[in-house]
Known about the structure:
CATH class of the largest domain: Alpha Beta
Amino acid sequence: MARPALLAVSHGTADVAGARAIADLVAQVREALPDVEVIEAFVDVQQPDAAELAPRIEGPLVIVPLLLSSGFHVHHDLHGIAETRPRTAIADPMGPDVRLAEVLARRLPASDAPVILAVAGSRDPRSLTDAEDMSSTLEAVLGREVHLAYLAARQPDLPTALRAHPDAIVATYLLSQGYFFDLAQRQAPGRELTMPLLDGTTVPEPLTDLIIARYLEGEAQLTI
Length: 224
């Protein structure tokens, strides 16, 4: 029996480098799962649109959100897709997860300075809990203080966090370059920011492992 297809759904970006980096991640997952059909789709900006594509995919399907937290896109868009077709599992989003913290830690220079974790921000309360959990996870991995800052929708924003912690290093908790990374650069002029999880070079192995783990969890749901 064929294994369920994997629909890897990201937000979508108009940034060419960011879009390429996410496509590279999906390609690496596809290479690691040669017996699984791995398909890329989006909830905004890029095509194909996940809601339009999913009903046309035959057989069982695991939708893996290439999103860093729960929120509107996961609980409305993706769970809405699951209602349109049988035998569809929605995996958890990528974060929070210790593998993301490991990649974030690699991006940071060796230092005892505190860290500001700059997250995109969302009005959905579920994303707030995920951001706080990710901050705590990174703090445990680093063994030093981590403070949250939001690039939109919530407080403290990044300029406020930088005023409160002027010696802190800014780690951007974003999947790839795009709107929010550009916003972070504008909000922290003259400050060095770490690159997103996908920095446009080699895809970090923990990210591939994380997507595969989410797929396997979803596959297991379909066999119950």
